[in-house]
């Protein structure tokens, strides 16, 4: 059934807030441009009212940390079915955009600015042209949808089409208006669907997980090897995909910009830094009391969205970062964990098994 929020003013006798509407639907788009975090903390806006070349205009475009594009369509005065159909039509255009076309879109959105430079500042890593637009998401922005359209969106999502709906409702509090936000579906599922969908032909997932380990001043590969873990944090986009791993799953770890550095099996589920403990000669201790080569988002330890999350790993084989394995054509992605279904992933695993002959072994 359609998602509807209700708000009350806190008091001894709670007072319900009256639902209202914005003066114009264009105001919501203007607010999104002025404060993009209304949509997401983890997307960078790159375009507005961009022409598709066949009579349509995309309301808002954004880019995710892995270089995937996000197509954002506001319902406006269209019927829910119309906006979903139109968004899918626009996605067929977005999918074919080349790097120079995306850079041109950004130059129209932010004249005189560089997409590569601004991406680096926003996400704290370089934009990899090879991964740029390797996937995309569709986001419908609406105050409400009818039951039929919600069923259509959920059906498409279940078929791993990366589509979601972001509901905004407006409430009146005295002379002011308040805005509430709710997702129709878990945005992590949409992110995973986008990340694992191949740009070309798909094939069944081979059962092998991929992990991106962000070696930096924040986290250390040497720590990960010594104490048996992989980790990610700084926001849900980075940390929540760690939840894909179940005990026993095999994961191949890559450090972006370097190459593959290890393979092992998860021995537990993702846990926040405040709960994760590691074995030391003096017994189990909190991870942040032991690791010393990185900051691990210590300043956000009490923030469940921004804190670092850890998955315990029993390593089968690892190599130092300077000996990372990288060959032309090997799979890469900025998502912390994903389940690729592209033929490139199958080929990558075939090559990695020759470079990491100990992949079947486990260290006790």
Describe this structure in words.
This protein is 26% helix and 27% strand. The protein is α+β, with helices and mostly antiparallel strands and 364 residues long. Strands 3, 4, 5, 6, 7, 8 and 9 form a seven-stranded mixed sheet that branches. Strands 10, 11, 12, 13, 14, 17 and 18 form a seven-stranded mixed sheet that branches. It has a two-stranded antiparallel ribbon with strand order 1-2. The longest helix has 15 residues, at 80-94. It is globular. The relative contact order is 0.12.
Would you kindly provide a brief summary of this structure?
By secondary structure, this protein is of the alpha+beta class. It has helices spanning 26-34, 80-94, 99-109, 115-123, 147-158, 187-196, 221-227, 236-239, 287-290, 343-355, and strands at 8-9, 15-16, 18-20, 44-51, 57-63, 69-74, 136-142, 163-173, 176-183, 209-212, 229-232, 250-255, 259-266, 271-272, 277-280, 283-286, 309-318, 337-338. The radius of gyration is 22 Å and the shape is globular.
Offer a few descriptive terms.
364 residues; alpha+beta; 7-stranded mixed β-sheet
